[in-house]
Amino acid sequence: MNVQATKPLNTRLETLLRGMPKTELHIHIEGSLEPELIFALAKRNQVTLPFKDVDSLRAAYDFKDLQSFLDIYYAGASVLLEEEDFYDMTWAYLKRAHSEGVVYAEIFFDPQTHTHRGVAVSTVIEGIDRACQHAKTTLGIESALIMCFLRHLDEDDALKTLQEALPFLDRLIGVGLDSSELGHPPEKFERVFAKARALGLKAVAHAGEEGPAAYIWGALKALGAERIDHGVQCVQDDQLLAELKRTRVPLTVCPLSNVKLCVYDNLSQHPIKKLLDMGLCVMVNSDDPAYFGGYINDNYIELFKALDMNEDDAIALAACSIEAAFVPQSKKDLWLGQLQAFHQSLT
Ligand code: ADE
Ligand code: ZN
């Protein structure tokens, strides 16, 4: 990562960013697996990893693009075998998110990464869901699950995955699309998304991370996506910018991810402030925090340092994170009230 010289934040702004109630809507739960937990699970499950220890694994987190990251991310996920593994991973993330002011998280998971290794979809969903329920009752943080299809696989595999998940439909809020973007346009998954939407699931899709603005149009038109994950390549297309502004289809932006995967050389080049100022609904997320050098508040803080953003920007981003959540308006009003109260409580 090319680290730019950045100004320190004033204490009040840093307190606001760290403590403000916010949601996280773009977090791959497998991307929250820290190297220490990867090695602990490898030992528990007798899985051999192609890395000697935690330090040599961390040293490999030097990515040149999305694919170079995905290769290591899928290797890391290979230690997940039992329900308890999915529980431990999700619980660790939710504890951390709660400590960073996250009131609600929509969590992506990749069932095909596990079912292709012989792990049942029930094992995956029940482990993740049990941690979500435990976090709600013990910490108060709420969450929902979004099942992602891997776009480097074919649509029939996604259809089969949707079929296998039918008994767990009540645990899911939506479906998503992730993995290698270039060469795998959204249109490839039109039928499976139509089927998922007919089942009452929300649709989101990664688009315009490395891929062109045309993939964002594709996600909107062919998949009926109600949110776009990343979406930063919308800056290439004025008509698309106008459409995103008009419809307020949110973009779940992940600043540190974009730098770590070389979409931008450094955060000072990131377009999120420009998009916010243009009136788009954008907010900050961590994507794969264990791999990209930070959880949600690291993303907020590094971004605010690099782009010289202020308190109004912080409140606007947190408000967008609440607006973009798949929850009833009454819940959004409650969290927006808490956001305002937290801001007013700062001295
Ligand atoms: N899977 C996990 N992280 C991803 C990302 N940033 N883009 C696409 N697929 C992913
Ligand atoms: Zn992502």
Provide structural commentary:
It is a single chain. The two termini are 35 Å apart. The protein has an 8-stranded parallel beta sheet with strand order 1-2-3-4-5-6-7-8. It has 347 residues and is of the alpha/beta class. The mean pLDDT is 97. The protein has one domain: TIM Barrel. The protein is built from 17 helices and 8 strands. It is globular. Helix 5 packs parallel to helix 7 and helix 16 packs antiparallel against helix 17. Adenine binds next to helix 4.
CATH-defined fold name = TIM Barrel
Report the major sheet.
Answer: 8 strands, parallel
Content of β-strand: 5-15%
Element order: H for helix, E for strand: HEHHHHEHHEHEHEHEHEHHEHHHH
Quickly count the helices: 17
Structural class: alpha/beta
Could you say which overall geometry the principal axes of the C-alpha atoms support?
Answer: globular
Keywords, separated by commas or semicolons:
347 residues; TIM Barrel; 8-stranded parallel β-sheet; 50% helix; 14% strand; globular; binds adenine; binds zinc ion
How is this fold's topology laid out?
Blueprint: H1 11-19, E1 22-28, H2 35-45, H3 54-59, H4 66-77, H5 83-99, E2 102-109, H6 111-115, H7 121-138, E3 142-150, H8 155-165, E4 172-178, H9 190-198, E5 202-207, H10 213-221, E6 227-230, H11 238-247, E7 251-253, H12 255-260, H13 272-277, E8 282-284, H14 289-292, H15 296-307, H16 311-323, H17 329-345
Parallel strand pairs: 1-2, 2-3, 3-4, 4-5, 5-6, 6-7, 7-8
Summarize the structure.
By secondary structure, the protein is of the alpha/beta class. The protein has helices spanning 11-19, 35-45, 54-59, 66-77, 83-99, 111-115, 121-138, 155-165, 190-198, 213-221, 238-247, 255-260, 272-277, 289-292, 296-307, 311-323, 329-345; strands spanning 22-28, 102-109, 142-150, 172-178, 202-207, 227-230, 251-253, 282-284.
